[in-house]
Automatic annotation (TrEMBL):
Molecular function terms, GO-annotated: monooxygenase activity
The protein's name: Antibiotic biosynthesis monooxygenase
Entry annotated with the keyword Oxidoreductase: yes
Pfam hit, one: ABM
InterPro entries per UniProt: ABM_dom, Dimeric_a/b-barrel
Protein source organism: Luteitalea pratensis
Length: 116
């Protein structure tokens, strides 16, 4: 990660029967996210075991680009999926000021809701 870039990291363990459904949704969202302005890269890795661990990683040019993404319908769909998970995914936003959890995304989205 370069000095100006920021990252989103999600680690989510699901049962093997859930992999196709969850992975399919994540792949579709990532394909669209790759085309967003400021998105440098977007990847999804899978580790198979008793539980299947999905690791999502997005790298953005800047925190401003990330904030725009967090306000998008695509991120809203991802957030809904994560919030409905039976096992809570680990979500990290790696920013110049430090690493934050999912509350960072909620704060960005709530700030927009408050201005409407």
């Amino acid at each position: 990660m370069s000095e100006a870039s920021v990252e989103v990291r999600v680690e989510w363990s699901v049962l093997p029967p859930q992999v196709d459904a969850v992975g399919g949704v994540l792949h579709a969202l990532l394909s669209a996210t790759r085309g967003e302005p400021g998105c440098r890269t977007c990847t999804l890795a899978t580790d198979m075991g008793t539980l299947v661990t999905l690791r999502l990683r997005e790298v953005w040019d800047s925190e401003d680009a990330l904030r725009q993404h967090l306000r998008s319908p695509r991120f809203e769909a991802l957030a809904s999926l994560l919030e409905s998970a039976i096992t809570q995914p680990r979500v990290e936003f790696v920013l110049p000021t430090g690493t934050r959890g999912f509350e960072y995304a909620r704060g960005v989205r709530d700030a927009i809701e408050g201005t409407r």
